[in-house]
């Protein structure tokens, strides 16, 4: 017979376009699909077509690292258009996502001397768990996971120099705050994954020694697996390059080509009315944050991280917050596992324990599709409106 089209359980209506309110809200992953509508609008100008015989070699101009000079040029243009990083006097290298570069950076900042004790790799709570997972999993002789910075904060005298590698995530995942190193003696890896006007004010260009960026949170093309690092020190750059070389040879040339096209569209559209991805990203994220805040402000059960309006050098104005994630706190005694309480109400989040902090917190992703967000908001409205009645 004729195959019958069935909607996925979360959708109904004649063309499966209506979201069912019974469907759970999935605010778990950090998949940045909020930018999909921008790329639909820019579909023709952002398309890439590659003939079968193009770009077949391992190498570009006989260079095995195969770093596209044109892409490096566009990345420098991008940072100068956005004003979020100084690229002068920095080496640029590419990785398969920023994940690979973060691992390369830990390796590169660890001591060379086999007689040196391993470097302790640290981050400040609440932190992105992959730093710890990666460091522990790769288990290099030259470094080991050292826990949270607060454990070592008294170790700030210069005799401790070289002992510590500190991850600084700015803005932070999960809470969106702009962070600085806690130890003043550590080698620092600055993870600027979210340092774009979509998610934060840009107070001044990033000027740190080792900065890591990713296409994932800039353009939303997380699946292309493209990241880059800006590195001041030649020796650190060389060690990172060797790590990437032995891990991968080089970042896929197809990915580089796609990144080149997308970044060109972004830079050419920057500050151009209707074409500016940052205007689009900011207004989308700010709208979501405002609407969620309106709901949560009526609640005694939940609260959100507090972020205040700040001057942004990109927009040249004071802008309201627009974080990538809501860092929700469950205020009631009985909600000590906030993520479990949310799950019982049909909201999937990531609990505080994942970020090595109190289970009273949970992260809600605000960067997924509009449908995902609307579903989350509907569930939050229902949850908060229940508060007034039976407690
Ligand atoms: N750093 C942070 C803080 C992140 O949140 C993520 C992804 N969610 C990454 C790095 C990794 O991103 P990618 O490997 O896609 O560049």
H-E order: EEEHHHEHEHEHEEEHEHHHEEEEHEEEH
Instruction: Please bin the fraction of helical residues.
Output: 25-40%
Backbone shape? globular
Beta-strand proportion:
15-25%
Strand order of the largest sheet: 4-10-9-8-7-5-6
Structural class: alpha/beta
What value does the Rg take, in angstroms? Answer: 22 Å
Cofactor: pyridoxal 5'-phosphate
Family: Belongs to the alliinase family.
Domain Alliinase C-terminal: 25-383
GO molecular function: carbon-sulfur lyase activity; transaminase activity
Features:
single chain; 391 residues; alpha/beta; 4-stranded antiparallel β-sheet; 12 helices; 34% helix; globular; binds 4'-deoxy-4'-aminopyridoxal-5'-phosphate; transferase; transaminase activity; carbon-sulfur lyase activity
Give a written overview of the molecule:
This protein is an alpha/beta fold and 391 residues long. The termini are far apart. The strands form 5 sheets. A 7-stranded mixed β-sheet has the order 4-10-9-8-7-5-6. Helix 3 (69-82) runs parallel beside helix 9 (253-269), helix 4 packs across helix 5 and helix 4 crosses helix 8 (234-248). Helix content is 34%, strand content 17%. It has 12 helices and 17 strands. The radius of gyration is 22 Å and the shape is globular. The structure holds 4'-deoxy-4'-aminopyridoxal-5'-phosphate (PMP). The site of 4'-deoxy-4'-aminopyridoxal-5'-phosphate (PMP) has 13 residues, from helix 4.
Topology record:
Layout: E1 11-12, E2 18-19, E3 25-26, H1 36-41, H2 43-46, H3 69-82, E4 91-95, H4 97-109, E5 119-123, H5 130-138, E6 143-148, H6 149-152, E7 164-169, E8 187-191, E9 210-214, H7 215-218, E10 227-231, H8 234-248, H9 253-269, H10 277-296, E11 302-303, E12 310-312, E13 317-319, E14 325-330, H11 338-344, E15 347-348, E16 350-351, E17 361-365, H12 370-387
Parallel strand pairs: 3-15, 5-6, 5-7, 7-8, 8-9
Antiparallel strand pairs: 1-2, 4-10, 9-10, 11-14, 12-13, 14-17, 16-17
Helix pairs in contact: 3-9, 4-5, 4-8, 10-12
The structure holds 4'-deoxy-4'-aminopyridoxal-5'-phosphate.
